[in-house]
């Protein structure tokens, strides 16, 4: 993860720990280096400590141990209001008793900017989020998406170095969400601020981020660019959390340089990429993305194979999902494009499914 | 969307009406209760303050004779004669005492005059009465010559009157000058002002004491806040009388506070604290504090901490952020609390009666006085109606400047 950040990271979390009740650690050992201008997303299930990390960075929660550095300087020595961090709150937190213009002008007024500069800036940012005609309304008179855009504009108008966004699009419908994702990306590219973004939505994380840090149980499971995360998940949790995956249980049979041989439970031997299971005899899970798994005849007999019985199929539109079951009851899913290659199968029909070794990984197997 | 057919529209309207009827039936008991316990007494109070038929019933003929009177000199013999006959009759029916009370209210010092005159006129035989009724009356007391007295009687004889309102506003009506400020005793306007002042001070004190506490409570975890809230509400659970008497024990000349201050040598001699407006203000602030804290607390609880955080992330220091962001958001609770405390304290009775002495009396105490001691229900009603009007006026002003829709009670 240091490749993007370089030696001198702009923002650093080192061994950050946090407890609220002095019993259990909510954030266990958080390390992250962020380069200036980078778009980092924190992704993880509910309660995994994402908001807590943002709050510590913004200065609304103290750090139990470890350090957060901005430009090499520890944040504990900087008061929250002096950190120059813009924040978009999940519930907008627009001041209800102020109009949009007053909301936007607030950070500039605090900074004692001249009146005409404030007016010009407010106009600029209102038009940036396409709300110029709404300036004199109160937040209560806006739709959710409009409020969201105001919150965004307010967090950016004072040119903060870092912008924190805590599930900023959580309350929006799909269409508005996509529109706002685009908007945020555009502003990020245009203005060049550093973003720490929190979301539950993996698609959102994949499309927007330079890098994604996947959280679970207060620990970063993997921090990597989206394609790495998706194609080379570091462990089973990440493989499961990001996208879908088929999981075949087995035991490591032999270990090569980049690949391992796995003896599946049904007796078949398959070859896959090496990941976090590297010892002979170790139980493992072979993880294959549904779109990489296909019908045997399409690969022309190359790659790994597994036999499965057809259960049902779901018509999704651009693709079709086929559900299969292996002899030991493991469920397998195949995503096939909705074109002439999509086969017609009869119930309980036995077919061979295949995939290429470089499209699968031998990941950990949680102890049952 | 296609429009409804007539039939569908009719069915929808029917369903709506049925719903409305059910809803109405649900509130009928409450409506009846409120009519009986609230609307009716207030209506009767308003009615009483302007409707006063007693004198007109006691001396109807005298009053009709008085209509000819020029209002400047002593009424003519015929009028006096008629009055003497009616007084004779009232004396026989043992109603002269009632007349004496009514006249006394209209013209100070008339109680004994009416009683003495009634006795003298009563001693006359029927023929004597016809011959020298008026003369006997004039001989009985010189007041009967005074045009001012007859003017007062004439006004007291009106069935519908606004005179009680004049009295309640320290005004009087004069035969020549018309309405003017009463010279002898001016108590009510002063008392209204004092009541409002005290209510204002109490409201301010409640706000100053309640705001920080509510703020503190709103920041605590729910269960601890609830526990402390019980302590705030504890005063509600002890009798008002007990609490007020506790203040007497604390404040009296050789009470707890004075003894303590004397003991540690801060003061040389005890302060007179009990039976002053100071005592009233302190005791009432204590009693009304929960009315301020409760709405404030519930509004503050509802304010997401992210607002203050947002302000800070935008660069505001804690104090300015509080003043510009948090405080305005608590205004609905503050105004609700202030309005509650103010209105309750304007009409408060028991605490000033017990700890206020003469200095700490409020308008309610004088209303009670007129109902219980001087038996002047009409004046009490007029004072009460004025109080009601005053509160409505204040509410209107409040609504104009703050906006009643801003109030939030929970
Ligand atoms: N102020 C607090 N006091 C005590 N515990 C807290 C507090 N805030 C959060 N926690 C606990 O810390 C853990 C992590 O919370 P956090 O809000 O950081 O999760 P999150 O990853 O943001 O979850 P979500 O995706 O649901 O927002 C949770 O178990 C939560 O109960
Ligand atoms: Mg969160």
From TrEMBL, chain A:
InterPro entries registered for this protein in UniProt: AAA+_ATPase, ABC_SmlMolc_Importer, ABC_transporter-like_ATP-bd, ABC_transporter-like_CS, Mo/tungstate-bd_C_term_dom, P-loop_NTPase, PotA-like, Transp-assoc_OB_typ2
Keywords: ATP-binding, Cell membrane, Membrane, Nucleotide-binding, Translocase, Transport
Domain ABC transporter: 11-242
GO MF annotation: an example: ABC-type polyamine transporter activity
Superkingdom, natural source: Bacteria
Keyword Translocase: yes
Enzyme class: translocase
A Pfam family of this chain: TOBE_2
Signal peptide residues on this chain, from the entry's feature table: none
Catalyzed reactions per annotation: ATP + H2O + polyamine-[polyamine-binding protein]Side 1 = ADP + phosphate + polyamineSide 2 + [polyamine-binding protein]Side 1
Family annotation (SUPFAM superfamilies): MOP-like, P-loop containing nucleoside triphosphate hydrolases
EC number: 7.6.2.11
Annotated GO CC locations: ATP-binding cassette (ABC) transporter complex
Subunit description: The complex is composed of two ATP-binding proteins (PotA), two transmembrane proteins (PotB and PotC) and a solute-binding protein (PotD).
Reported function: Part of the ABC transporter complex PotABCD involved in spermidine/putrescine import. Responsible for energy coupling to the transport system.
Recorded family membership: Belongs to the ABC transporter superfamily. Spermidine/putrescine importer (TC 3.A.1.11.1) family.
Designated name of the protein: Spermidine/putrescine import ATP-binding protein PotA
UniProtKB/TrEMBL annotation, chain B:
Protein name: ABC transporter permease subunit
Localization terms from the record: Cell membrane
One Pfam family linked to the record: BPD_transp_1
Limits of the ABC transmembrane type-1 domain: 192-398
Membrane topology term: Multi-pass membrane protein
Main location: membrane
TM ranges: 23-47, 196-218, 224-242, 249-268, 274-300, 321-350, 379-398
GO CC aspect terms: plasma membrane
């Amino acid at each position: 993860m240091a490749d993007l950040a370089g030696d001198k990271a702009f923002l650093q979390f080192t061994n950050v720990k946090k407890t609220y009740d002095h019993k259990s650690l909510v954030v266990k050992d958080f390390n992250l280096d962020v380069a200036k201008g980078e778009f980092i997303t924190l992704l993880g299930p509910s309660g995994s400590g994402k908001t807590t990390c943002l709050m510590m960075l913004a200065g609304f929660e103290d750090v139990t141990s470890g350090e957060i550095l901005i430009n090499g300087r520890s944040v504990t020595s900087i008061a929250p209001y002096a950190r120059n961090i813009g924040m978009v709150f999940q519930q907008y937190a627009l001041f209800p008793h102020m109009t949009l213009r007053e909301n936007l002008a607030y950070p500039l007024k605090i900074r004692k900017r001249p009146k005409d500069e404030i007016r010009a800036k407010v106009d600029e940012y209102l038009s940036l989020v396409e709300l110029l005609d709404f300036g004199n309304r109160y937040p209560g008179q806006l739709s959710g998406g409009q409020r969201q855009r105001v919150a965004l504009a307010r967090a950016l108008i004072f040119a903060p170095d870092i912008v924190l966004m805590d599930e900023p699009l959580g309350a929006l419908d799909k269409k508005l969400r996509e529109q706002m994702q685009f908007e945020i990306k555009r502003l990020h590219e245009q203005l060049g601020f550093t973003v720490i973004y929190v979301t539950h939505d993996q698609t959102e994380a994949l499309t927007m981020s330079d890098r994604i840090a996947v959280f679970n149980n207060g620990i970063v499971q993997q921090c990597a660019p989206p394609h790495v995360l998706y194609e080379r998940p570091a462990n089973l949790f990440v493989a499961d959390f990001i996208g879908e995956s088929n999981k075949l249980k087995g035991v490591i049979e032999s270990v090569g340089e980049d690949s391992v041989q796995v003896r599946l439970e049904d007796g078949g031997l398959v070859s896959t990429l090496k990941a976090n299971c590297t010892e002979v005899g170790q139980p493992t899970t072979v993880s294959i993305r549904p779109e990489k798994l296909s019908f045997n005849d399409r690969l022309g007999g190359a790659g790994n194979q597994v036999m499965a019985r057809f259960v049902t199929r779901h018509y999704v539109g651009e693709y079709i999902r086929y559900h299969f079951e292996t002899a030991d009851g493991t469920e397998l899913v195949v995503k096939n494009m909705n074109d002439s290659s999509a086969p017609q199968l009869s119930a309980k029909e036995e077919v061979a499914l295949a995939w290429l070794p470089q499209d699968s990984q031998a990941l950990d197997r949680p102890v049952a | 969307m296609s429009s409804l057919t007539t039939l569908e529209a009719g069915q929808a309207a029917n369903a709506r009406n049925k719903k409305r009827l059910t809803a109405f039936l649900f509130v009928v008991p409450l409506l009846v209760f409120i009519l009986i316990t609230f609307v009716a007494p207030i209506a009767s109070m308003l009615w009483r303050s302007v409707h006063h038929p007693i004198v007109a019933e006691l001396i109807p003929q005298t009053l009709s004779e008085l209509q000819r009177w020029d209002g400047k000199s002593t009424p003519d013999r015929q009028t006096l004669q008629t009055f003497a006959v009616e007084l004779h009759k009232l004396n026989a029916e043992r109603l002269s005492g009632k007349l004496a009370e009514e006249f006394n209210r209209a013209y100070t010092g008339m109680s004994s005059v009416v009683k003495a005159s009634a006795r003298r006129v009563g001693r006359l035989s029927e023929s004597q009465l016809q011959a020298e009724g008026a003369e006997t009356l004039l001989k009985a007391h010189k007041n009967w010559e005074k045009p001012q007295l007859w003017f007062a009687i004439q006004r007291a004889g009106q069935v519908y009157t606004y005179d009680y309102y004049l009295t309640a506003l320290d005004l009087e009506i004069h035969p020549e000058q018309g309405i003017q400020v009463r010279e002898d005793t001016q108590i009510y306007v002063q008392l209204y002002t004092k009541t409002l002042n005290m209510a204002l001070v109490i409201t301010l004190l409640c706000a100053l004491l309640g705001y920080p506490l509510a703020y503190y409570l709103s920041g605590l975890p729910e269960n601890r806040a609830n526990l402390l809230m019980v302590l705030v509400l504890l005063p509600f659970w002890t009798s008002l009388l007990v609490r007020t008497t506790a203040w007497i024990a604390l404040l009296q000349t050789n009470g707890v506070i004075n003894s303590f201050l004397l003991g540690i040598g801060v003061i040389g001699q005890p302060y007179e604290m009990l039976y002053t407006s100071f005592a009233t203000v302190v005791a009432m602030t204590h009693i009304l504090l929960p009315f301020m804290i409760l709405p404030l607390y519930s509004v503050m609880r509802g304010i997401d901490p992210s607002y203050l955080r947002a302000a800070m992330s935008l660069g505001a220091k804690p104090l300015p952020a509080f003043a510009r962001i948090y405080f305005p958001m608590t205004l609905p609770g503050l105004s609700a609390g202030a309005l509650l405390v103010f209105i309750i304290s304007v009409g408060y009775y028991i605490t000033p009666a017990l700890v206020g002495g003469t200095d700490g009396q409020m308008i309610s105490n004088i209303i009670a006085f007129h109902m219980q001691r001087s038996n002047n229900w009409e004046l009490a009603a007029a004072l009460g109606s004025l109080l009601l009007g005053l509160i409505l006026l204040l509410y209107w002003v409040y609504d104009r400047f703050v906006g009643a829709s801003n109030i939030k009670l929970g």
